[in-house]
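Re: Re: token formats

Sure, here are both.
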Amino acid sequence: MYKISMVSLGCPKNQVDAEMMLATLKAEGFEICPEEAEADAIIINTCGFIEDAKKEAIENILEAAQYKKNGKCKAVVVTGCLAERYRDDVTEEIPEVDACVGIGSNEKIAEIVKNAIEGNTENSFGEKDALPLSGERILGGYPFSTYLKIADGCNNCCTYCAIPKIRGKLRSRTIEDCVEEARKLAFRGVKELVVVAQDTTAYGEDLYGKPMLAELLKRLCEIEGLVWIRTLYTYPDRITDELLETIASEEKLVKYLDIPLQHVNGDILKRMNRKGDYESLCALIERIRKMVPEITLRTTLITGFPGETEEQFEEMAEFVKYNRFDRLGCFTYSAEEDTIAAEYPDQIDEQTKIDRMDNIMELQLTIAAEKNEEKSGKETLVLVEGWDDYIKCYFGRTPADAPEVDGKIFFMADRQLKIGDFVKVRINDCIDYDLLGELI
């Protein structure tokens, strides 16, 4: 029996693909091994979205190659977006890699890994739409919180984004398929379900002729055992009154919405092949907060997009000050091969991009601290995630915190708690993005 270790990088969608590949490998008789030093083969499930992600992938591939050089590892296999995007270039540029597997060949992963271990290396690239959208998974991370990927691919074709070239066009799962998987996950003990896709608000357009996210969320709320359901990656143009009414009325839907705006200047958004401008996006935020008063809003922004003037950047900064998002991430623009924006002549220098990003994040740190201070003395439900042995207290997340991307709450308790339980905590203080409290 061969032992397999996997490192999965990048977004939650990629994590779900990794979990499905691990289930395929286990079903074919492989032993899943957490320790790379003990593995016969190491799989690096890569992200290839932006330059930093590619660098991280290459670093992990080279680290895995050291186990092949100095340990028992016989094969390094590369899967995921970097493999799909650069294909044969991966094995040509990094000869330590024994097999490169595109997303359309994920179902063949067991055969490919076995062959690689036995010295019969090959690259495999099936059609993008051969990527399985559903199947058995070996869950990583916490057993009580996981992701539900409802679609793959994207039709938005933003000029800075390579995802449609990597992942192909939008492919939604049926409502029944999504609900069936969610039921199985709840039966396995999952209490928090995080709904993801490249654009969750486009879900269903290809199958049903119209967006069906609101309908899907209503069906998910009927599942016994699920306590929290949250949605990430909602596209601003597709946030309908029906969706907001659903979030407001369904108890299991946490009052949380992730809206990657990327920019707010109308001219920059047009060059991004996105819609909207400062006024329309302010109106959207106002409408969301009016319809769902307790909503926590998260967004992401890009600084240094080609042609971004100082005035256009200042408009973004003013937007951040005015709308006071609860959660905000900011990234510098990355010129990606085979994207329209990479060919724009008016590229911005790296230092200007970084300075502008730092400016936005400084603004957000102040806003986040002020918002957290306003929570002092209030009570909140908390999902217990673990015990911090260094500061001797429990930690977890509130409904306002998505896994991996948001902050945590650290709290004292006068009794032993079970990981994965929900408890009531009184907020006493904050440190930057994190809260401090005590069990009620």
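Second one below.
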Amino acid sequence: MSFNSVWQYARTGRGPANRTSRPSSKPSPSGRSRLSFEHLENREMLSVSPTVTDVAVASTDWSSGFYDYLAASSLGDEGYSIPLGSSAQTQALSWENINQIKITFSEDVNVDAADLSLSGVNNATYQIESFFYDAIPRVATWTFVNPLVTDRLMLDLDANGLDPVADLDGNILDGEWVDDVTSGPSGDGLAGGDFEFSFNVAPGDVDQNQYVNYYDYIFTRMLEGQDTSGPSYNPFNDIDGSGLIDTTDWLNILGHLGSSLPSGQPVGATNDAPTTAGVGLVVLDNAAVDEAISLFDAFDDAEDLDSQMTYTVVGNTNPAVLDTLSINSTTGDLTVSATSNVSGRTTLTIRATDTQGLSTETSVAIDADYVNQPPVIYNYAAYQYPGNTWLFIGYVSDPDDDVEGWVLDFGGVFDTRATVDENGYFEFAVILEEDEWGYEWVIATDPHGLESNDPVRWVGLT
């Protein structure tokens, strides 16, 4: 078949992970969500490295009306797209509840939470709470534990280290960037080179002069009562992103009076965060035997030796499964053993911190006297609409893994990938001419490499 006539769209829903919602009946491609059409290319034809095409900031606390205003005003479809190609890139952002960064890629990529590091001057590092990659619009979303404070910031997206960002053919990210100059996309035409991008946040600085003073308060007070439909509404004065400039906004600005961007540069400007290749599933089938996991193998750092980094366990989902859990700082071994007569799984979160304070985390799944269960795909279907549009939907479940954020592989009459939302639901659409109709299969693979128990489900487009 010819891929020139195959197109796809994704619903660009609101919220922390840009996710779709479950339809209440037979779904329709139309509705409140905006449609983003893009060409579905034959992967074998791709020979260039992926690049970054957009960087946006967002918040899980911004209202849907505020997001809609940004989109309608061409200020960003995924949040607020940071302006490129001029000093506007590093103008201070006035919102006080920014807790997300969204990066859009030129093509579908393999990317995970540990690929991004965010560092500052006031805060050396910002810890990541969650991550979601939506494969169809090619948008990766990092949500941070705490909102960004007044700070000079730099994000660093890996194109080196143990597991760099790469496309589905293995081409590594082409990430070179010159702040306030590059207008996008990133790169110098050669694979490799971290994407290092600077921006600034100063909550309450509505005139973006890097300092919060009474002018910021007065200008906001004058706009009190303006909402996104008002002629004088300014999103920078709506510092909580509610869609309404009100008392909350100017009171919060008063709370920031006198604050200004710090001098100096973020820690990440001269230091890379550790990278990680992750750790595979660890199986403990004998409670009397300790298992040693090498953290020196799991992490690496461009500036520090493995032994110079600090390793800590910052999460343990099921402590009852293990009766031994320790880290030897000299050997870098994480030692675990199973609790007698206990069966189950726990997931450890391990953090590696370098000597400059930058850190990276990875998860380690440990099964004690337990067998990993396969994922299941169900209610997989395709609906035809006018114009030869086909909407594919379905669900994924897994008895022992959270399926949110899984990226599914599709093949048959065309190849693509789609991401599973927090309800286990997935959807995407293509336009197929009648002579291209056939069958399409889907495979779900859990984080430990186990494929769905019925990995190929055929849907006839006839």
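The two ends are 16 Å apart (CA to CA). The mean pLDDT is 89.
- S.
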